[in-house]
Amino acid sequence: MKVLICGYVGGGNCGDEAICDRLIAAIRAQGDRVKLLSLTPSESMVLHHIPALSRRFPKPINALWECDLFVLGGGTLLQMQTSRRSAVYYLSLAALAAAMGKPWVLLGGIDPLSGGVGKLAKAILPTARAFFLRDRDSLQRAKSLAPCVPRFYLPDSALLPFEKSTSDREMPHFPYAIICPKAGVREKTVAPIVQAIKKRGLRLVFLAMSREDEGICAALSANFGGVWVSVMTPSAPAARRVRAEVLLPDLPPRSPHHYFAALPCEIACRLIAGAEEVHSARLHGLIFAKKVGVQANILPDGTKQWKLYGFCPHPPAFLKESGAKNLQKNSANTCRAGITTK
C-alpha cells in the first residue's frame, strides 16, 4: 500500500517533525510504503529516510494520483491563526484526493474556522474516511463540520517511543532545567523562573524547538547564563560531529554559551528526559516532558497552552488494518486503524 503524508513538514519545527517521524514509523511497521509532501524535500529525506516531494503544485497532483491513502496531518493544520491560505491549501489537497477517488483521513486537530474557510471546510471534510483528533475541542468541531464522518480520539503521535540513537555519555551529566521559549516571549516572563531554577542549584538549558525560536534562546542565554540548544538547523552532519564535544559530563559550571546545532527530535526528547524540570511555551516541549515523565510547567505566552488535553499514559495502537480495500469496506474502523484506547 502506498501512503502519502502531508503536514507542516520541512518547516524547522521539532514538534511537527516528531509527529511525522512517529507516523512514518507506524505505517512502515505495517510493511507499507510512505511518501512525504514537504516544504524542504531534501531536508525531509535526510531526517525521515523516505522519498519526499515539494508541496508546490503540480507535484502533489501526481503524488495523490499514485497513492492508495492520503494522510493529511500531524498537527493542527486546519487553523487560521497563521493565515487563511494554509487552511485553504490543505483543504484543496483533500478535495483533490476525493475527486480522484482516493481515501483520505485527517490526523491532528481542527481550530475554529470562520467565513469562507469555514464554508469550504463544511464542503470538503465530509469526503474524509475518518478523523483522528488529539483534543476534545477538535472532536466537537469535526462533529459540527462533518457529522457523518467517524471520529476517533488519538493522542499526539509524538508520544509514541523513539528509537534510541544516542548513548548516555552524550547526554549532560549535571543537574539542569530546560526552558523552551517561543519567539516573542518576554524576558520579564522568564526572569522569575530563571531565579527559581538557580536557587535550586540547577543549570539552565534553553531549548529551541523551532528555528524561529533560536534568536530568543540565544538572547535569553546571553542575559541569564547557561547554554542554548537548537534542534532544527540545517547543518545536521556538523551537529553530530560537535555533539560529543559539547555534551560532555565535565562541562564546567560556568561555561560559555554553547550552540548545540541541529539535534534531531529524539535527541531533544532525551535532553528533556534528563532534565529535573521543563518550562515550555511550545506544546511539544510539554508533550515530550509528559512522555518521559518529567515535571513540566506552561511558560506563559504559549499560544497553544490551552491545548493541554489529557494525554493517555499508553497511546492507543493505530494503523492496525492494512489495505485500501478494508478501508473502503469498513467505514466504522477507517484510516487503516481500529483505534483502541486503554
Strand content: 15-25%
Helix content: 25-40%
Task: Determine and state the CATH class of the largest domain.
Answer: Alpha Beta
> Which descriptor suits the 3D outline?
elongated
Question: Gyration radius, to the nearest Å?
Answer: 20 Å
Could you say which structural class the secondary elements and strand pairing correspond to? alpha/beta
Relevant CATH superfamily of the largest domain: Glycogen Phosphorylase B
Here the CATH topology of the largest domain equals Rossmann fold
Main β-sheet, in a few words? 7 strands, parallel
Strand order of the largest sheet: 3-2-1-4-5-6-7
- Helical segment count: 12
Could you name the ranges where pLDDT drops below 50 across 5 or more consecutive residues?
164-170, 234-263, 302-342
**Overall pLDDT metric:** 77
- Please give the number of β-strands: 13
Distance between the termini: 28 Å
Number of domains: 2
Could you state the order of secondary-structure elements as H and E?
EHEHEHEHEHEHEEHEHEHEHEHEH
Q: Helices, strands, pairings?
A:
Blueprint: E1 2-6, H1 14-28, E2 33-38, H2 41-48, E3 52-54, H3 59-66, E4 69-73, H4 84-99, E5 104-108, H5 115-124, E6 130-133, H6 136-145, E7 151-153, E8 176-180, H7 187-199, E9 203-208, H8 214-224, E10 227-230, H9 236-246, E11 259-260, H10 265-273, E12 277-280, H11 283-292, E13 295-298, H12 324-329
Parallel strand pairs: 1-2, 1-4, 2-3, 4-5, 5-6, 6-7, 8-9, 8-12, 9-10, 10-11, 12-13
